[in-house]
Amino acid sequence: MNVVVMSDEEDATPRADCRTCPHREDRLRKGRCHPGDTCVGALSGRQIARFFKINPDLAEQYAGDPFWERRAIAARYLSVQRLLRMLDDPDEVVRRVLAYRLPVEALPALIDDPDREVRVTVADRLPPEQLERLVQDEDYLVRLYVAKRLKPGRLFRMLRDPDREVRKTVAARLPPESLGLMQHDAAAEIRRIVAERIDTDALTPLLQDSDWRVRLAACQRAPLTLLEPLLDDPDEDVSALVRDRLMGTVGCR
Prior knowledge:
The chain is mostly helical.
């Protein structure tokens, strides 16, 4: 077997100087850290993570460390009281850890965080009754999380959201009796969702939609008494479905 021995110059593994490490006499001697592998002094997220996994009791010492990654990893092991003192941390990765670990009652402090990933986590964890503060967030992904979790009866403020994906979620969750408010949405795929969910006695406008996919969805659910005008629909799939339903080969309701 050939063994390749790498020189120090060839080995790119980050290493800290154990001679100046404050943990040399306790952790190193006890085998609770290892140069180049499990080390809080190295500029390596993997080594730092391994160090705190073995030595979580030392996290408090590094909560204010100048290196952002050291603070972020230490934050995984800190008490809630200490985390609350880090709400203004200048690094977004640190604040993302806070958004994930803080109790829900402390999350409103991060609602206006400049980092969208922080706000997304907040939107994913806040109690539904507190989500309305994020309804008009500047980032569509934050609003999407809000639309997925907000109580259906409170979704009216998002009917005209500028993002199509957000409106699709609203259309899928809005109470059926309120879907008429979205039957003229600019996006055909949203009108199709409306056609699939709205009360059948409210389908008439959607049977005349400009998009064949919307008309097709409406024809699948509309009462038979409304279908005859669509026998001559310009789209073959729509007219074929109408013929089948009127002839009784497809469930009529």
